Known about the structure:
CATH architecture of the domain at 516-704: Alpha Horseshoe
InterPro entries: Neurochondrin
Mean pLDDT: 87
Low-confidence stretches: 1-8, 416-434
Strand order of the largest sheet: 1-2
Protein name: Neurochondrin
Family: Belongs to the neurochondrin family.
Strand content: under 5%
CATH topology of the domain at 516-704: Leucine-rich Repeat Variant
GO biological process, one term: neuron projection development
Organism: Limosa lapponica baueri
Number of helices: 36
CATH class of the domain at 516-704: Mainly Alpha
Radius of gyration: 35 Å
Oligomer: single chain
Number of strands: 2
Largest sheet: 2 strands, antiparallel
Amino acid sequence: MASDSAGGHSTLKRCLGVLRDAKNDSEQFAALLLVTKAVKAGELDAKTRRQIFDAIGFTFPNRLLTSRQPPAGCPEDTFRALGLTLLACFCTDPELAGHSQILNKIPTFNDILISPCNPDSTSMIDDVYQCLSAVMATTRGPRELVTKGTVSALCQAYLNGSYGSDRALTLLLGLLAIAETRCWQRDAPHLLAVLSKLSNDFLKAEDMTKFELCEVLPNFIPLSPPLTQDSQGCECLHRLYKGLANILGSKLSQSQRDPALKLAACLVQACGSEWIPAGSAGSKFLALLVNLACVEVRLTLEEPDPLEVEGKKEVVTACYVLIETGIQECLREEKPLLEEVQKMQLMRIMEEAFGAVIFYLRQVKQEELQDPFIFASVRILGAWMAEETSSLKQEICELLPFLVGYAKKLFKEGIPAGSLPQPELVSTEGSGLPQDALRFLLPGFCHLTAEDRPRDILISEGAPALLCEYFLHQWEVLTSKPGSPTPLTSTEMSLQTACGIFLNLVVTAPDLIRRDKTFSSLMELLLKALPLLLPQKDHLVLAANIATLGLMMARILVSSAVLRDTQSAKDFFGAAIRFLSQAHTAQADPGSEGLAVAVSPAYASAWADIHELWFLGMQALAGSIPLFPWLPQAVLQAQWLENLSELLTRVSPASVDFELITAFQGVLVELARASRPCRDIILSHQGGEWANLYGMAALEQCLSEQ
């Protein structure tokens, strides 16, 4: 055997010599046939394959690919087939597979895939797939394949069902895994055609193919653009819904149910609940989906066997996605998919599932904290805590030390990830360590800081200091881009929710604000943030949060260095006065010929989110006037008193509600008491008359005193 092999190698060496020294095409062709025969037989090791390349390089295969004249008596594609065999041989070397001479052959490979295939050219197809697979494994390869049209070629090859179409699908799956967004941006119609075929096969299949397709289909569900925007996409979604309804309504083994749940979760991530039709059938399907997800979570997490949990993490994470949709749909009031009875049943079932999640998280060991599955479990619990505040209160309180410690560990150890993309929920593989657990816990913490026991636990675990640090970081993320702040929705939402938590602490734990030094750092940031934020119309809700929080904290931290007659403090209060003073205007009253007070146009779209903050801010400003002697002067500079007097004089008193009158009076009384110039301006603008007209008794009395 050894001598045969040695003989084969010596023959190959002679052939390579002939190839180098050949005087004519027939000599070269004869030698080449022997070389390619050895290559096809797979007899060559990496060293010998490299020797072949060193002997002939890319020049000779390039000539073969472009030659249109086959040797006498040979098939038309003979030279092209030989050239492809050599390139497939070279591509087994990763260094050569990424060479520009291979990459510039991608259009040729594509053409061969979509050309009609006769029985004699199957070896060419095999070689093309070998080349494409090797190119995809290189660093530059996937980008080159996408930009040079391989996605559409693979789609056509798969849809044609010709020789090797199963390999076309495998390569497509690989490309979508690496470059999904780019593939869909460039080749959406072709990919939709493949999805259409797959969804059709999925609906019609009555055997195990149906469950195999459950594994394949998620790769063809794009997060963007949404399938619901396209009629063909909607048809695909409807077929997938019907196919899943058939599966999940049947008795299934675990190996059959798991892929179906993962496919459903993938559809939910991409399209929300829009792929589920309204009506009785759709609501039953959604209720069944969430029910099955809850059962899966309980079965896996209530009595966790470490080995069993390890194998089920992917499907349980998919179940979390379905349960989060269940929470959203139970809360949905406009065009709800679920009936009230279904909502109540699901809330009870989900509560049991969250009991299992809490139980599981209480068993987590320190060395497991970097597992993305722990992150997914904390994230879904955060979604529950954000919406359902009354159930599992005792269990959540007992888990709070873990949640704070976990969020703190991720925040301190990683790059805190307001600026990082979050890993997709359905995949727990290779996502690295996700960082921003706090983002998902903030809404729940906001509810909990309004209650004594959970608030005390959060304070004792150091949550306020952590939240201050987090706020400072998220502000940096928001303002880090040119022309900052930029509209980063999740970052801005996190900042707004953190403000809500701090407002709760200001009201319920003022001593904490006074003694914890991190709140002085937070106050310093708020002073600088508001003047920067307020002029930007897109950030009014965040500005309202920062203005109100800053005004309320200022009353507690009045003696701190950061507020002691500093320019930044004056700039902040100037901006806060602008925010409060510009919220209302006079406009035509539809019910009469006069004018009525109304929310200013710039505030109108955000007023539902900020009106409570505005009233709270007015109270806080009134309380700050006696504490900061320079505040009345800031009000005078803003000409608020003149503008407010004009507003109240022009509008119909009936259009100004009692709450608004009370808010205005609170500020006006403190200004009149603290500053003679303010009092004089109010009086000189008929303040006594409109105070009487609006029933501002406290202001009337204050103005009448000498």
